Amino acid sequence: MKFFNQRNAFYDRLEGNQLSSSAISLWYALMYTNDKAGWTDEFSVAASVLSLRAGVSVRTLSTARNELKQKGLIDFKSRKGNQAAIYTILDLCANIARNPSDNASNKRSDNASDSPSTLLQENREEEKRKEGEDVRENSFTFYEKNFGVLNPFISESIGKWCDDLTDEHVVEALEITLKNNKNSFRYAEAILREWQSLNLLTIEDVRTHESHKNQGRKGKARPKSNGNVAQFSDYSKYNLPF
């Protein structure tokens, strides 16, 4: 099983099967563990170790583990006593989930006799479905494409910021990090902390704030921040290699 092929297949699967951030972090932690074990069909790891690597509590680990199994991404066997569970990471490359849009296309072809108004309604419903889908994986994908392999710690941090702010905020912070020629997630986190402290809840507020910073117009009005005064932080000290 090749790591990068498996990872790409994992993201293909996410397009039609949403996962919680905890489940995503756990999947990466299991991939890391299996890599250290030499990519065996089955491997065991203590819940405490897996919890640490995934950055989640043991209780959350149990929920995320069941979620991954239900989605057909892993399998595991619990054992009696204090013995660690045995895990199997299912090979996604051999059975990549079909894109949901393909199913929609097939349904339309099967109902070719439907009236134009019916087909138009189906198209509108499909567009609404796509607009309403959770796009959280975009921030994870963006990080991997531009920064490198996503380890469990950063994966959990990204999920946390998606919950505290939005996926758009995370991607925006990562883009600013790249524009400033930095390659550290700590740098992006410093940006996110500032936005959170200033209560910049929309991307429009964020971009206005960043525009004022770039222009250096200290006398200009800035986005509302619940009484907080916008401070133009210097993020450069956060350019650490992780």
From TrEMBL:
The keyword Ribosomal protein does not apply. Residues 214-223 have a biased composition (Basic residues). Residues 101-135, 209-231 are annotated as: Disordered. Pfam families: DnaB_2. Residues 140-210 form the DnaB/C C-terminal domain. One of its GO terms (molecular function) is helicase activity. Keywords: ATP-binding, Helicase, Hydrolase, Nucleotide-binding. The keyword ATP-binding applies. Residues 122-135 have a biased composition (Basic and acidic residues). Coiled coil: none annotated. Belongs to the DnaB/DnaD family. PANTHER family: DNA REPLICATION PROTEIN, PHAGE REPLICATION PROTEIN-RELATED. This is Replicative DNA helicase loader DnaB.
